[in-house]
From TrEMBL:
Main location: cytoplasm
Family: Belongs to the SUA5 family.
One of the Pfam families matching this protein, by short name: Sua5_C
Keywords: ATP-binding, Cytoplasm, Nucleotide-binding, Nucleotidyltransferase, Transferase, tRNA processing
Positions annotated to bind L-threonine: T30, H62, R117, S177
Name of the molecule in the record: Threonylcarbamoyl-AMP synthase
Gene Ontology CC entries for this record: cytoplasm
InterPro entries tied to this protein: DHBP_synth_RibB-like_a/b_dom, Sua5-like_dom, Sua5/YwlC_C, Sua5_C, T(6)A37_SUA5, TC-AMP_synthase_SUA5
Organism: Enterococcus ratti
Record-linked Gene3D superfamilies: DHBP synthase (3.90.870.10), Threonylcarbamoyl-AMP synthase, C-terminal domain (3.40.50.11030)
Compartment(s): Cytoplasm
Positions with a binding annotation for ATP: R53, N57, T113, S139, S147, R193, Y233
Length: 341
């Protein structure tokens, strides 16, 4: 199969192909998604097989309006309206209890709940509208690899396996949406996956408390969000996190051990070490926002075989606000490994 790029003028063609059961990757503000018609079980099955994704890991259903969600859910959490008004379209996925038989079991992994999101991307919203069906969309990467933040990343992983890619340049946020559980109308909303919408922003919007799934803090507990248990965001090259005060030591240790090292960091760190390492991927600036936007692209670029790196060192940020989302992804890429003196 040849994988085509779809441009602005071909969005209705892309929508038609999706509706008919073909797989098309689409841009969002977070990462690129691998789209298929959520109402066609055979098309959804294809999504699992081309990504090599475990079948018990349910998918997010992408919609172009909140109205569309009402076809599948009748018992909403009382805070739903406030949350949707404040954050949709945007990087926030909502879990609701669904009507029986409303969505194919393959979409939900057989659960009685489903995840919904209205992405903030004009082209994608238009395609969902034109297709007139909800679109499932896991990140458009091979399972286990860093999520794609450009159309080229998608092409790299899925060329020849999907019908097309809607190209809209690099994604603005760079990590996947925040996932919150609203499936029990009697419970406080619970964050199952940190993303660009933070706990603080959610609490300010609803004027109440939001909890965080304990396993995000204590890694031993069983996650509520099935996807969180799998190996994730892992390049083939070993990744290590480096605290700000440890960089000189880390570079010296790598040199003493004759290791070929790559560095992913903001300009402040990147410029101070760049003559001592084999490769550098520099974030746009020293903010956590720039780091979050660039993390997956950096991991993919330094994982290129031809660089022949033994090790990738990555800058650490403090775990507050957006730093929670950045560190959640980075810890997984690094398999929790820090450089230790
Ligand atoms: O930003 C994003 O969310 C991207 C873009 C493409 O929209 N999509 C994405 O999808 O990250 P995916 O499939 O890679 O992650 C979906 C996450 C997984 O951790 C999955 O386990 C969880 O959502 N999830 C889906 N349905 C669920 C449910 N009913 N209950 C709990 N967690 C659920
Ligand atoms: Mg994913």
């Amino acid at each position: 199969m040849e994988t085509n790029y779809y441009y602005e003028q071909q969005l209705s063609e892309a929508a038609q192909a999706l509706k008919n059961g073909q797989l098309i990757a689409f841009p969002t503000e977070t990462v690129y998604g691998l789209g298929a018609n959520a109402l066609l079980p055979e098309a959804v099955a294809q999504v699992f097989s081309v990504k090599d994704r475990p079948q018990d890991n349910p998918l997010i259903v992408h919609v172009s309006s909140f109205e569309q969600v009402k076809s599948y859910v009748d018992n909403f959490h009382p805070l739903t309206e406030k949350i949707v008004k404040n954050f949709w379209p945007g990087p926030l996925t909502l879990i609701f209890k669904i009507k029986k038989g409303g969505l194919p079991a393959i979409v939900t992994g057989g659960l009685s709940t489903a995840a919904f999101r209205m992405p903030d991307n004009k082209k994608t919203l238009q395609v969902i509208k034109l297709a007139k069906v909800p679109i499932v969309g896991p990140s458009a990467n091979t399972s286990g690899k860093p999520s794609p933040t450009t159309a080229e990343h998608v092409y790299h992983d899925l060329q020849g396996k999907i019908t097309g890619i809607i190209d809209d340049g690099a994604t603005r946020i760079g990590v996947e949406s925040t996932v919150i559980d609203l499936s029990d109308p009697m419970s406080e909303p619970m964050i199952l996956r940190p993303g660009a919408v933070t706990k603080e922003q959610l609490e300010a919007a609803i004027g109440g408390k939001v909890t965080i799934d304990q396993h995000l803090i204590q890694s031993s507990e069983t996650p509520k969000s099935p996807g969180m248990k799998y190996r994730h965001y892992s390049p083939d090259t070993t990744v290590m996190m480096v605290y700000e005060e440890d960089w000189q030591e880390a570079i010296k240790w790598a040199k003493d051990n004759q290791l070929r090292v790559g560095v992913i960091a903001g300009p402040k760190i990147a410029e101070s070490v760049r003559f001592d390492v084999a490769a550098v991927y520099m974030y746009f600036d020293d903010s956590v926002k720039a780091a979050t936007q660039g993390l997956f692209a950096g991991l993919r670029s330094l994982d290129e075989k031809m660089l022949g790196l033994d090790l990738i060192f990555v800058e650490v940020f403090s775990e507050e606000g957006l730093g929670n989302a950045y560190m959640n992804r980075l810890r997984k890429s690094a398999g929790q490994k820090y450089f230790e003196k």
